[in-house]
Every structure is written in C-alpha cells, then in structure tokens.
Amino acid sequence: MLKDTSNNILKTKLNAVSKDLKESIKNLDSYTHVRGESLYVDDVNIRQGTFHAVVFDSPKAHGKIKHIDYSKAEALEGVIRIFTYKDIPGKNEIGGIIPDEPLFAENEVHFWGMPIALIVAETEFIARKARDLIDINIEDLPVITTAKEAKTKGSFINAPRSFSLGDTENAYKDCDFIFEGETFSNGQEHLYIEAQGAYAEPLENGNIKITSSTQGPTAVQKTVAQVLGVSMHKIEIDVTRLGGGFGGKEDQATPWAVMAALATHHLNQSVKLILNRHDDLRMTGKRHPYESSYKIGLSKDLKILAYEAEFLQNSGAAADLSPAIAERTLFHATNSYYVPNVTTKVLSCKTNLPPNTAFRGFGGPQGMFVIESAIAKAASEIGVSPRQIQEANLLDENDTFSYGQIAKQVEAKTSWNSAKNIFNIEALERDIENFNRTNKAFKKGLALMPIAFGISFTNTPMNHARALVHIYLDGSIGISTAAVEMGQGVNTKMMQIAAEVFSVPIEKTKIETTNTTRVANTSPSAASSTADLNGKATLMACNSLLERLKKVASEDLNAPEDSISLKDECVYTNGEKSKLSWTDLINKAMLKRVALTENAHYATPEIHFDKTKEKGHPFAYHVYGTAIVITTVDCTRGTYEFDSVKIVHDYGKSMSKGIDLGQVEGALAQGIGWMTMEEIAYNKDGRLLSNALSTYKIPDLFSVPKNVEVIPLETKGHELAILKSKAVGEPPLMYGIGAYFAIQNAIKAYNPNYNLKFHAPMTPEKVLMSLYQN
Length: 774
Ligand code: MTE
Ligand code: HPA
Ligand code: MOS
Known about the structure:
Structural class: alpha+beta
Shape: globular
Domain Aldehyde oxidase/xanthine dehydrogenase a/b hammerhead: 35-142
Low-confidence stretches: 1-7, 12-18
Protein name: Xanthine dehydrogenase molybdopterin binding subunit
Number of strands: 30
Keywords: Molybdenum, Oxidoreductase
CATH superfamily of the largest domain: Aldehyde oxidase/xanthine dehydrogenase, molybdopterin binding domain
Oligomer: single chain
Radius of gyration: 27 Å
Organism: Lacinutrix iliipiscaria
Pfam family, one: Ald_Xan_dh_C
Bound molecules: ligand MTE, hypoxanthine, dioxothiomolybdenum(VI) ion
CATH topology of the largest domain: Aldehyde Oxidoreductase, domain 4
C-alpha cells in the first residue's frame, strides 16, 4: 500500500513540474527521504541468525600493548567470538595510497580509537557489554598531537611536495611590501547523518556480499579481498545510498566492511557492524588541521609579485588519503589569483590522531585560507581594503597556475564584477559604514570571497567511469554506474540524462544500486566529478542504444536513419510523428534481435600531470564564483550572525538547478561551520574532547545566514562537464572562508587595536578576546 502511494506521489510531482527538467527537477530521493522510506545499511533486511559486532579500540593514543585479557568478555553469554589481527588470513593492511595502516593493532597502538579487536555477539547490546569486560594494559609512548610537534621530531608520512613558478627569491627584491605570518585552520567532523557501517552475508563457495555505506565500493572490495587473502571476484559490494559522506566515506568506510567480512568469513554467518555516534566520532579521521606560514610580496599598485607558503598538514597516524589531499592544497594555494612567482611546500606530518581524511574540498580550502589570510594581513598593514588586493590579482585568460596549467574559460573577473554590480557593493559598504558609525554595541563586517576550484581527481588515472544501461521489453530503463548517491543528487542527474536521450518520462528510468558486479574497478564517488564521469559514460551508453534504435526505426518506417528522432515516447521522421511508439520500437528491436543493453567507458581527455616535474594539466576545468559575506557581531557577547551571503556562481549550464542550488547552500553552510564554529579538540594525550554534539557545534537553522542569494553566472558552460553543467559538490564550501574575514572586519570596526590573527574557527570566545584586545 505504502509503496503504491509513494509511487503515485512521485508521479504527481513529476507531472506537476514543467517539461523542462533542468529548471524544475528536484532530487528524486527527497520523496522517499521525507517519508522515511529511503534505505540505508541499517535498513537492510537481515538474515535470520545474523550476528552483531562492536569494535574494541585503543584507550590510549600511543603505546605498547603489554597485555590484553579477553576471557571475561568471551565468557559472557551470547558472545560468539572475538577477532584480532591473529585471525586475519591475508594481510593486516588497509592503507589505500601507502601500506602503513593495519586493520587491527598488533603490538602497538597509534591513536586513541584505533581498532584492536572485533567482538561478535548475538546482539549489539551483548557485544557492547562484552567490550567493557576487556582488560588492556598499554605502556605509554610519547604522544604527538600537532603538526608542528611532528615536524620538530621529524615524524612524516612521506616526502614533502613542492610546487614552484617563476623565481620567488628574486621577485621579493622588486616588492614594495613584504609580509610574513602564520595561520591555523582546524579539522572538521563530517557528521554524516548515517554513521559508518556494513552488513556482510555469506554466499556459496566462500563468496561474500557486503552492503556498505561507502563512497568507494571498489576500494572496499579490493581491501576485503586483500585482508581475507581471496581474489576480488569472490567479494561483491553493494551500495544503495549514503546518509551523507562528505569525503568521510571515501576511504574510511572500508575498515568496518572488512571487519564484518572477516567475521562472516570465519563464522559463515551474516554479520552487521554499525558504529554508534560516539564510536564513529572517536575512531574516524576528520578534515586535516593545518598549521601554515606564508610570505607575500606586493608592488605599490597592489600586485602580488611573490608568494611563499609552507603547509604543515596534521595527517594523523597513517597516510589514508593525506598525500593526495596535501597535493590538492598546493594546487589551490593561490586560489583564483594570478601570482607570477610562487613557491609552496607541504609536509604531511605524522601524529597520534586518527588518520585524517577527505573532506569536501580535499585540502583545497586549507590552501585557500592561507592566501586569503596573507591578503588580509597585507591589506591591514598597507591600509587598503582587502578587496582592492583581491581585485588587483584576479586570474585572467591564459594565466599560468603554479603547476603549469594554462587557465582557460576563466570566470574569476566576470564572477567578481558581476557580484559587485548585481549586489551593488558600494551601497553595501556604505550601509555598513553608516551602521558602524551609529552603533556601538554591534558592528557589521563584509568580506568578498572569490573561488577557483579544479575539477578532476588530481591523480589522472582515476578519472574514468563506466555505465551499464538496459532497456527492458516494456521500454523502461535500468541504469548502473559507479556513482554513489550520498545526497548530492547524482542519481537524479543520471536519470535525467537517459530520459533526455530517449525522450521518455523520468519515471521510466531507474538507477540500480551501485554494485561491483555490474560496474567494476571504479574510482570513488568524489572530487565533485561523479556526475561528469558517470554522466558522460551514461550519455555514451544511451547514445549507442539510440543509434541502434534509430536503425530499427528506419527499417521499420522505411525512412533514412538521419530523419529519425524520438520525442515524448514517439518516433518522429523528419519532425513528423509516426505511428511507432517508444514501446513499439523496443518490441521491434527485440524481434530483430537487437541488443538492448550497452556498456560504455569514459575517461576524461586532455588531462595529465607529471609528478617528477610537478607540472601538467591536471584539471578538466575550474569552477569559479564570488561570494559577498556580511555579518553582524554582538560586541558585548562576541556572538555573531550572518546577515547575508550573496553569491555569483559559475554552474556552467546547470542541468538540475534545484539540486545545484542545494549543493551551493549546503556547502556554504558547511564552510561557514568549519571557519566559525566547529571546534575539534583533542587533549595533549590525544583523546577527543569534542566527542558529542554537546561539545561540537555545527551550524543549525539559527546560525546559517539569514539570507542566501545565488545568481548563476551566464557562461557557455564547458564541454568536459556533463551536458555543460559544471561540477558543484565541493567548490561552494570555500565561499564559507569569507565568513572568517567578514567577522574579522567587524572586530576591526570595534577595536582599532585588534591585531589580526588567522586561527580558525573564529569562535565567539575568540571574537570576544579580539574585541577587547589592547
Ligand atoms: N552533498 C550531500 N548532500 N552529501 C554529501 O555527502 N559530499 C560532497 C558533495 N556534496 C556530499 C554532498 C563531496 S565531498 C563531494 S566530493 C561531492 O558531493 C561528491 O559528489 P559529486 O561528485 O556527485 O559532486
Ligand atoms: N579529490 C577527491 N578525492 C580524491 C582525489 C581528489 O583529487 N584524489 C584521490 N581521491
Ligand atoms: Mo569529496 S572530499 O572528494 O568526497
């Protein structure tokens, strides 16, 4: 009954919207979301007799394991078995880029929350009770929690990376102004609503199927096979959707799936492992905190002639994705500015925190925060507005990025000027000046934040995807790709593509679960590239089918192939409606034994990068935009509100305006949260203090901007973007950086003695201290 109604609701909604899907389409998942019908790992119908698992993790950040006593836990009624590294038939290794991360600790622990064992029991409750009965004795070793400390002690994940353009040393000689300083940006908790988890089921012949909440089904499959010592074809990964990933499930969904599979492998029984929120917060890595230093040199006319930055990335206790994230920091170190002389260096510092990982922006935001800080510092010292420096240095057509890519179809100046004109920046600034002149207890601040974000996995070989499209006998369409739906609306976009190519209503299309047996050897859904890569593959597969079907129609209607087109479920010849319907056409094709299935492979053309030279053309294109952030600071309390964020954003030609607007709004809120309120805290022993939502504040309805306006920049779109609709997932997060500087400007308006500090997040405590600093 329920199913029927929901389908009807979906149909009504779809019919009610205009024919133009680009204008009106919503994320189709939203209908099942609000009805509570969307399926997540915890909703999978589990088999009778399924066991439940809980992870036993390290209560110390660094130490030697002297002794563990599992006997009391094992004796508890309902406990089935406890698994440790000794039970691993293959390799105790889950590192993706560098093999430096065990699934279970062996003799040493390297972070608080590091998995040591898996307790499997009849119920989760029993497994948790058993966990409390485990006795462990760890001999303390020195704990490193900050990147600087790691650098001093020479503790690194890998060799440093460095990009350079021009001749920075000599360029400083031509500078009229040179400023140096330090910055800090803190980590960020992903706080996906669905915590990490997996459900493993034994199939015949030792094969295992795993339902996982992962952005990277192939990474899970490969790692499970490696740990179990079996080949990949024995392991099937299935993903319906994620309740959010935000990068936190690109690599870090893997261990839980591997643990569940390990238990299933030994017990030949289904095993479910879902972390509760506390376990998830403690055991998983976050956005990388960065401690950075910069040196910026400018001419009298405010041109940035030289820029140097050293980024200390707090990588945590293992590499995870840190090397790739570090690389993206360098790619985005100059944001949307052209700087002719650049030297940047990043060190991935090994500490005793949980391995930090991908988070929306993937190191880019950390890089951009530093150059925006350098500009703010320079502006304050020279006595100009930061926006004068920003504006004087915006990227132009054919400018070179520090990594050698020549900027094309640049929208840095167009988005900047549009934002200034459309929102009348002079009037906004005048209003703020007036407000600040007439108000003592409240001050307003404004900041502009331009962005330029590179689209593609920076690791060129990862930029590929495949799609498998079936047309069923009744004309309905099933699509499988590597894309993982995590709330970003990629499934809806894939359906739109098929519906558009075949000119059928979108409810005739369906996205299958993301499954490694249907689409194999995939890159994770990440780098904002999922819709581009999988969409292009889907488009190719659909177009091949269309060509085949046109041939069938041409034979049937005795008309040339190039006169055939499909429109609204009918075949047209030379624009004239024929008697042949879409379903007739499919039936004819079947009778003629024409294949109604197609598999297509897409690999982004043009991109390349040479790591030995640190030069190349790694990005298919860049996404641009400019935000104006306005805040009001309560100077008695140190609290603040965001009056408005006004954005001109480069969507290219958006294929799904509602979804893309949702991505801009969500990313903006997440960026503001990172910059202003989300404060991760570890104590010096490496224990996470901000381990609940009572101590970790994320933006809520009351703290998001009162007013968000997003104007699409008119452009012709980009050929390498799917249907010219540019990637949108990550770039707008970086508009949130403007929030930091808007607050800073409000503080300056209150306290002329305020000495600019670049230490994010700008929490109300820090604002208060700054307001009253002498
Ligand atoms: N939006 C929602 N609702 N949930 C998410 O988990 N992840 C972000 C972004 N937007 C995310 C999201 C991240 S980190 C990335 S890389 C992209 O979506 C991934 O999807 P895309 O490649 O389809 O843009
Ligand atoms: N972005 C996101 N995820 C990634 C990347 C990237 O550039 N490279 C590897 N994983
Ligand atoms: Mo997004 S950080 O590339 O998953």
